[in-house]
Every structure is written in C-alpha cells, then in structure tokens.
Amino acid sequence: MTTKPKLTVGVVLFNGFATLDAAGPMQFFDQLHDEIETITISHESRIVYSVPPNGGCPMMANYTFENTPPLDILLLPGGLGCRTLFHDPRYQEFILAQSKRVKYILTVCTGSGFLAATGLLNGKRATTNKKAFREIEKLSSAVLWVQHARWVVDGNIWTSSGVTAGMDMVYAFLTMLFGTERLKIVLEIIEYTPSCDDTHDPFAYLADA
Amino acid sequence: MTTKPKLTVGVVLFNGFATLDAAGPMQFFDQLHDEIETITISHESRIVYSVPPNGGCPMMANYTFENTPPLDILLLPGGLGCRTLFHDPRYQEFILAQSKRVKYILTVCTGSGFLAATGLLNGKRATTNKKAFREIEKLSSAVLWVQHARWVVDGNIWTSSGVTAGMDMVYAFLTMLFGTERLKIVLEIIEYTPSCDDTHDPFAYLADA
User: Fold this and answer.
1) CA distances from A57 to A31, A40, A51, B26 (A)
2) CA distance A63 to A8
3) Residue B2 belongs to a domain
4) If interface means Cβ-Cβ distance under 8 Å, which residues of chain A face chain B?
5) Strand, helix or coil at B58?
6) Phi, psi of A121, deg, nearest 5
7) Fewest CB within a 10 Å sphere: which of A50, A150, A194, B50?
8) Nearest chain A Cα to B58, which residue?
9) Residue A23 and residue B18: Cβ atoms within 8 Å?
10) Helix, coil or strand: residue B137
11) What is the CATH number for B67?
12) What was the pLDDT predicted at B44?
C-alpha cells in the first residue's frame, strides 16, 4: 500500500481577517487531516488578530511569504483588514507567483478582492460578500461579478460570498476531491447541514442596497 | 451619554480544540466588538493547535488560568483534546471558581464534558456532540442529558451539540442579550442563516448508533 501525499493548503492571514473566513474551511481541513495539511501564512506579523490591534481571534502564522513551502491549494480569507492589502505589491507578487503553482485558489468573502486586484479574475466569473459587493466589484470591471450565488467556480478558482458561505463552498470543493461518502462523516462530526446549491443565495438582495 | 462597559468573554483553548467550537462563536463576538471583548485563555501553552502537535489551526492564548481577568461569560469549546482535561484538577478548579463569578457559561460540542466532570451540570439539562453522546454522558449520570436538541439552556448554562451547533446557540444567546435587530446586521455581514429552533436537531440519530 502506497501512502498518497497530503494536499497542502496555505491559508493567508493578516490583521483584520474575518475569523470564520479562515476557520470555517479550516474545520473541514482538520477533519480530513489524513489527506490535508493546513499551514498558515502571514506577511505582517506572526500573530494576527481578527479585531486589531489585539482583539478578537488571535491566530498564529507558521510561515511568511518568503518561506512558504510548495502549496497545492491557496486560501484567501477576507475581512475588514484586507482592503489595504489588495494593491500591496508584496501580496500581489505572492498571489501571482502562487497562481502559477497551485492546483486551486479558494477565496472567502472579500478575499476575492485580492484576485480581482491582481487581474487573476479577468474574464472570469466570481462573487464576494454581498454587503461589500458594490465596493469589491469596483476593484475590477474585467471580472464577471455574480451577484446571486452562494459561491462561484470558474476553472480552478473558487470564490464564495460572505463568511459562512466559505463553509458551503469548501464542502462542495472537498466533495469534488474526496466524494460525498467521505464528507458525510465530516458533516456528522461537525453537525453541519451545508447549502449544496450554489445558486441559493439568501443574501443577494444586500448587493442592491 | 454613558458608555456601557463591554462584556468580557473568556474562551478556553487547549491542544486538540475543535477549531469552529471556538471560532464560530468568536466570529459573532467579533461583529459585536463594541459590546463584547473576547479574550483567549490556555493553561497548556501559549500557542495551541487544533490538530496537535502542530497542525490545523494555530490559535494564541492571551492569558493563563492564573492571570485571567474578571469574566462575564466563560466559553468552553470541545474537541478531541478535551478528553484528557475533564478531570484535570487545574481545569476543575478554574471552571468551578469561574462558575461562581461569571454571568453565563457556554459550552460547544464535547465542551459540556468539562461541566459534567465538575458536577456543575448535576440535576441540569444539557447536551453535547451527538457522535460523542454516549461517551460524554458517561461522565455523569447526575446530568439530565438531552439527546434531541441543537442546544439546551438551563439557568445560566448554555450547552450545544457538535461544532456548528455552537453558532446557532450563540446566535440565540446574543439575541437574548442584544435583540434580534442588532443580530440581523451581524447575520447579514456573515451571511448566516441560523437554526432558531433548539429542538431542530438533524443529528440526534447519531446518539443511537
């Protein structure tokens, strides 16, 4: 019996990240730790806070942009703190370099703004947090922004709506990789009933506001 | 206009905590950071991992049991790592001391095992993760364990079923404190549709297995 190498997911963290944008998907990865290794990456400081300077959820990064090991999957969370980073050359360089290497890129909530700012979503369908929709879509008119979607898949890029939508997107993503039977056990342990319909978006109306 | 003091929530962390047991409620607290200050507490090491020794979600603790400031609310997450801590005298002492001071105690998933082991649930109704139900209920026959419940409230103690049930419990808890209108804005930002019926428990069947 050969041991299949684990998939490595890199979760980018920064001050002002939305706790669940990162932690929602990470709970799924934790349940699949035989198949998936999760690493955290930050370019700002080793410890980041969801409510900076030092409030909310304190999460630690294992790596920086400079020493990140090879990744299979890149996960970009959003949150209030990402707004000042979309056009940060360090972020753009890291994300563009990773985009050439990884198999998949996943974004949660306003995390899709990172990809919009780099041009990686040009001509592609994508979504974002519905309360921030009008703000994020301004980052690029070359993106085919989808207002009504819990999550959107275009090629190897998966983008989700706000915060908890990331869990539904990751459930769909992991089902594609590992099958519904494997994920059924995960759902039973975390007692989660996912939304399995990417077009069921009860919050799409917020983008009209 | 007087400024109302914030409520302080203390989240106990340990190696092998379930990421979302802590992070699900914390996302709600983050959105209410004008009303709630969240602090993290660990007695083992400053950085804890959801998949120990150093995998999964790395979270940092701001305080230890010895220097924890006064709390209004104590939150006890569960996870694989809590099993060896239920009868740890340091945990029992801390939890019993806090129970005399805090306004509310909240547990998520197998976190209710901490309270069962201390005797704080004696004669009270409580629930836990449904896949771990038979294991956790063995901790105390003096607890009125509720198999069919998304979450249970008895006095000032709120216990939830597995992992994501903590978000529904915390939504109900915060609605009690701050009202549905305030929480409506939170739900819109995190795009969450909570289960508002504590008796709607799609995973209760797992406890029969």
Assistant:
1) 21, 14, 7, 7
2) 13
3) no
4) 18-20, 22-24, 26-27, 29-30, 33, 37-38, 40, 47, 50-51, 54-62, 129-131, 161-165, 167, 188-193, 202-203, 206
5) strand
6) -100, 5
7) A194
8) A60
9) no
10) helix
11) 3.40.50.880
12) 78
Q: Point out the residue among A23, A29, A38 whose CB comes nearest to the CB of B23.
A: A23
Work out the pLDDT band at B156, boundaries 50, 70, 90.
very high
**Nearest-CA distance from A122 to chain B in Å?**
26
Taking an 8 Å cut-off on Cβ atoms, the answer to whether A190 and B164 are in contact is yes
Q: Residue A2: what pLDDT? A: 56
Q: What is the pLDDT of residue A45?
A: 79
Within 8 A of B166 by CB-CB distance, chain A residues are none
How many domains in chain B? 1
pLDDT at site B209:
75
Per-residue pLDDT of A140-197, as tens digits, reads: 999 999 999 999 999 999 999 999 999 999 999 999 999 999 999 999 999 999 999 9
Mean pLDDT of B194-206: 96
Rounded CA separation B113/A188 (Å) = 19
The SS3 assignment for B22 reads helix
Q: Is the Cβ pair A23, B19 closer than 8 Å?
A: yes
In this structure, the number of other CB atoms found within 10 A of the CB of residue A126 comes to: 27
Chain B hits for A23, Cβ within 8 Å: 19-20, 22-24, 26-27, 57
ipTM of the complex: 0.96
Q: Which domain holds residue A113?
A: 7-208
Chain A / chain B CB contacts < 8 angstroms = 144
Band of the pLDDT at B58, cuts 50, 70, 90? very high
Q: How confident is the model at residue A92 (pLDDT cuts 50, 70, 90)?
A: very high
pLDDT at A1 over 60: no
Task: Report whether B161 contacts B201 (CB < 8 A).
Answer: yes
Taking Cα atoms as reference points, which of A100, A62, A68, A69 lies closest to residue A5? A69
Whether the pLDDT of residue B117 is over 60: the answer is yes
Domain assignment present for residue A104? The answer is: yes
Residue A2 lies in a domain: no
Average pLDDT over residues A85-112: 98
All residues of chain A having their beta carbon less than 8 Å from the beta carbon of residue B162 are: 189-191
